[in-house]
Amino acid sequence: MDGGLEGVTMSGKASLEFTNDGAVARITLTAGKANIVDVAMMDALLEAFAGASEQPALHAIVLGSASPHFSFGASIEEHLPDRIAGTLARLGEVLRAIAAAPAPTIAAVTGLCLGGGLELVLACDLVVADETAQFALPEIKLAVFPPAGAALLPARIGAAHASEMILTGANWTAAQAHAAGLVTRLCAAGDAESTLRLWLESDFLPRSPIALHYAAMAARRPVIHALQHDLPELERMYLHDLMSNADPEEGIRAFLEKRAPVWHAATGAHA
Predict the structure, then answer these.
(1) Is the pTM of this model over 0.70?
(2) CATH 3.30.450.20 corresponds to the domain 5-233
(3) Per the residue annotation, which of 78, 139, 235, 249 is the catalytic one?
(4) Is residue 17 annotated as a catalytic residue, yes or no?
(5) Would you give the DSSP letter of residue 140?
């Protein structure tokens, strides 16, 4: 980025740095190749977004990855019955922090962007992705569903496209995600950073930071509404209805044990 780095701060599994004389905050996932969105990473993201919010005259916040992959998704272990309530609560905090950010938020995506990683992207205002990016919400394959994805996807891409991702766990290419409206700007493989830099220079850095703040808050109304009204109900459905059945735990344990799941409905048993 032009303008150099200012005030680099490392925070566990995510880093925060300021570029362009402090006008741009860069929050980067730094948890290795997979960038698993576990509670430790979510704590780091909360710290990073809090730090970004303290910077005056911010024009944009970029959420990206130090790895060739944005994120393989959430921690499967933290979705077991004894841990899932805390995991969902923390993810909700992070998504609300993104939606309350004081400047436009841009997710920069390369490689795999799955599950909880995609939910982080859905809370951002805009998405730039290169042709290596792949997007999916594969939770249905574990006999669960993504509450945050189910709340935010319809607000971002409409009910029909959202239903395909949630009900089938379909893996979308960057081109498919762009056609559906999930990706704002699509570029060639390896060009995400240069595309992002040019976008910042043309459409964000020349603008009034005050105007950008209020424009972002106005444009986020559907996302904010989904987080305030839809997400709590979907979390209740997940924790109190879905998780009262045996199949979700079976799906998660089968994944962890690298075996085929045995669904209770197939044997005639019911939880």
Answers:
(1) yes
(2) no
(3) 139
(4) no
(5) G
